[in-house]
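Hi R.,

Quick one: here's the Capsule polysaccharide export inner-membrane protein KpsE-1 sequence you asked about.
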Amino acid sequence: MPHLDGATGVRAINKQLSEAADAAVKRAPKPIPNPAAARPRFRHKVLFSSFVLGVVAPTVLAVVYLYLIAADQYASKVGFTVHSEDMSSAGALLGGLSMLTQSSSSDAEVIYEFIQSRTLVERINRKIDLAQVFSRPAFDPVFTYDTDGTIEDLVDYWQRMVRISYASNSGLIEVETRAFSREDALAIAREIVAESTAVINEMSAIAREDATRYAREELAVAIERLKQAREERTRFRSKTRLIDPAADVQGQMGLMTSLEQQLAQAYIDLNLTLETSSGDDPRVSQSRRRIDVIQTLIEQEKSKFGMGDTENPDVESSEDYPTLMAEYERLSVDVEYANSAYLAAMASLDSAKAEAQRQSRYLASYTTPSMAEASTYPQRGLIAGLTAVFLTLAWSICVLIFYSLRDRR
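And here's the predicted structure, written out as tokens:
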């Protein structure tokens, strides 16, 4: 290092210190600007204005409308379930529990859909003027019903004012009806229960009709068959003039036995007369005529049983007793079979009716409709809070979209 004098050395040291100070100043962080001294830019004013117009103002309007204009709504609740009983047999009771639950659940689902249907709205509207009931407030265009609406509009509004919940596992149905007066809410709830009960009764009547229809048809067929069989037997009796061929045969058999005894006695008398009389004794000719008459009667009686002389033209084979007995037995069997079928059909119908009576459905209410004491709708605080939250979310999304598009430029 070269030798420097005193003045030159001092200047060199000062220069080095100055350079080091300049380097330290350059490396030092820049001072943070004072926020109070920062001025809002134009985009900040636009964001604030949009927040006021898009969130604050609508929320304030909603609160004003809810608390100053919206009419009070009263609610009436009712809870019920569709109960089905099937006492078919004690042996099948445990095995049929699952079927019973399934049937009950199916009936409850039918009522659940029925309460929301147009059919129920039309039935209740015939009893209660729903359009008038739902448009009672003088001015409330948001929550009231427009009387110029169609039946479809009324059904849509009905689903807003009648809330129904259904527990599929237990089959419990809970219905909440709303109206602008306590009396109207209670009346609508009672009509829902009444119409639902009527539907259950109709379903039970149809089920009983289906259960007994086949048995009644079988009974009608059995009655007609029995009538025809009895008419055939009556015509046979009228034609043959025989009430009971079996009894008549017994009588004819007794007559033949008597004639045969008389014939035997006549032969005995003839032989005795021939032994004790001369050749021209009139008793002999009288005995012979008596024998001929008895033999003729016997042949006539035998011909009735199909055992007479087939060469006798006076005997008609179609009128002999075997033919008549066969025909009568056939008709009697038809009558007995028809009578047995009739008794079986009657028993089947009685059994079907008893079974249908045991398979009953009815609406079991666990909560009866009651009149509300205070209005619970509209839920002003909840609606106002939800309005503010959703408007804020919508505004935030719009701001994020704006900045994302701005940063891509």
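The chain has a mean pLDDT of 77.

Cheers,
M.
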